[in-house]
Write a structure and sequence with these properties.
The protein is of the alpha/beta class. The chain has 15 helices and 16 strands. A hairpin with a 4-residue loop joins β6 and β7. The radius of gyration is 32 Å and the shape is elongated.
Length: about 500
């Protein structure tokens, strides 16, 4: 082990009392183990974190420090785990033992005792005999892992480790974090205003920025493009967050990029000054969600109601025709022909008349919302979040109680029948409260998708304000309508007058 420090730097020291000889070790024995392992770490110049199990159960569920240690091993925080004997990590049932071995093997984390080094990637455990060769082979791998770990730890400390920061931020080496460039901030605020207030598409925003001669955040004088604007608007760095661990792999090295699900991201809040509010961010997400629903046929040539007015018979989008001589726009009869060659019988309509009707309906909708008497049932996440917090505290108490029940059984205080009865009781309570927490969290998610009456009135005001602008294009009108209208159903058969029905977002 003379060359141990050449490939291993960061370790976890795991301490747990043992009852292997039928009698639990004393706190004094545990302290002696602590001294031995700390001295070993210092001798080999190893950085260490101590995980000391106070109330140790037979299973992993009854050992909170082991649960925490396994989570940190999966997050690749350590090169190895140091303990007085390998059986201190687990001598429980086959499932727990398999889980521990799998996590150590998949992460490539070593197990060290004062007498031997174990590598669970080697099924025959010949590491001890071949350790000198193993050290050389692992050196590069460990260096790479430490670099990646440094980035993760830096992110968790609130340091910026994600490369070139997004506009309007610049990197401050003294703070190891981001600060706002006031000149770039004006550009960012303009982009945000064009999207949220003027309701321009990302492509039109890029055109506006290029016309104004505003430089991008890139060095080579590239032009603005819609996808660049979209990434900028969706970036959560602007909320004051640092997010890492979103992907794995490097295309420059020919590696395949693996995208992690959001629950595996490392998200650190309040790292730098935000430049947009969570309300603005949610409205940006909602607008993108709405625009992504535009049918492909409607994208080919955009009119005021492209993709909005649906046939009352077959449900397909109505199409439009622009007269070259007058420039007037007409809604054509429904184009749909079924599998048997039968053409839909829904007739055309006057677009000008439809526009007047829709404008009146929007104003009327606003008046109804303003005069609406609310019952105080608007979304209130604060109360739900408080209940979830209380439920989690209760859950931790139940888990602690279960751990004590397991410990009492090990000490011989309970018969097997008593233990099974008490264990079943706490298992049921834990399962029940987990279900309650999941239901509350689902309610939070649903609330986040619902906008309040005041938010909806604000959006309508913006739509009405922009619809009255001079020189407004059909494409812009289309986006304004879509921000508050899900669809308009049109039905006209024979010589009857057309019927309109609006479905609001």
């Amino acid at each position: 082990m003379e060359k141990l420090s050449e490939v291993i730097k960061d370790i976890a020291i795991y301490l747990r009392k043992s009852r292997a000889k039928g009698q639990e070790e004393t706190d004094e024995t545990l302290e002696k183990h602590n001294e031995v392992l700390v001295e070993f770490a210092k001798k080999h110049n190893l950085r260490y974190v101590i995980y000391k199990e106070v109330a140790s159960g037979d299973s992993i569920d009854g050992r909170p420090e082991m649960i925490k240690l396994l989570e940190d091993i999966e997050n690749d925080l350590f090169d190895a785990v140091l303990c007085v004997d390998i059986d201190r990590l687990g001598r429980g049932n086959e499932e727990d033992s398999g889980k521990i071995k799998r996590i150590f093997r998949n992460s490539g984390t070593l197990i060290i005792t004062p007498n031997k080094v174990y590598n669970l990637e080697n099924e025959d455990d010949e590491t001890f005999l071949e350790f000198q060769t193993f050290l050389a082979r692992q050196e590069y791998k460990m260096i790479k892992r430490r670099m990646m770990r440094g980035k993760k730890i830096g992110s968790k400390m609130g340091n910026w480790t994600n490369g070139t920061p997004s506009l309007p931020y610049i990197y401050d080496s003294n703070k190891k974090g981001l600060i706002i460039d006031q000149e770039k901030l004006s550009t960012y605020n303009l982009i945000k205003s064009l999207f949220l207030d003027k309701l321009l598409t990302v492509e039109n925003i890029a055109i506006e920025l290029n016309k104004l001669g505003i430089a991008t955040s890139y060095e080579r004088g590239t032009k603005w493009h819609g996808n660049v604007v979209q990434r900028l608007l969706l970036n959560e760095t602007h909320l004051g967050k640092i997010i890492s661990n979103k992907t794995k792999g490097n295309t420059r090295k020919g590696e395949k990029i693996i995208k992690y699900s959001r629950d595996k991201w490392i998200v650190i809040e309040n790292c730098h000054e935000p430049v947009k509010t969570i309300e603005e961010h949610n409205r940006i997400l909602e607008l993108f969600k709405q625009r992504n629903k535009t049918p492909s046929r409607a994208k080919q040539c955009v009119f005021d109601f492209s993709g909005i007015i649906k046939c009352g018979l077959c449900g397909y989008s109505m199409t439009y025709l622009k007269k070259k001589d007058t420039g007037k726009i007409y809604m054509k009869p429904c184009w749909y022909i079924d599998a048997f060659g039968n053409k839909c019988k829904n007739r055309s309509g006057n677009v000008d008349e439809i526009s007047k009707y829709v404008l009146e309906a929007i104003i009327n909708k606003r008046d109804i919302l303003i005069n609406e008497v609310t019952d105080g049932s608007n979304k209130d996440n604060t109360k739900i979040e408080l209940i979830i917090k209380q439920k989690n505290k209760q859950l931790n108490k139940f888990k602690s109680a279960l751990g004590k029940v397991n410990e009492a059984y090990e000490l011989g205080d309970y018969t097997r029948e008593q233990w099974l009865e008490r264990k079943s009781k706490w298992d049921n309570d834990i399962e029940k409260i987990n279900i309650e927490i999941n239901e509350l969290e689902n309610e939070l998610l649903k609330n986040d998708e619902i906008i309040t009456r005041d938010e909806y009135i604000y959006i309508i005001d913006k739509v009405l304000e922009n619809l009255n602008r001079e020189n407004i294009t059909s494409e812009q009108k289309n986006q304004y309508y879509k921000s508050i209208i899900e669809k308009i159903t049109w039905l006209r058969i024979g010589n009857d007058e057309g019927e309109l029905d609006i479905t609001w977002r």
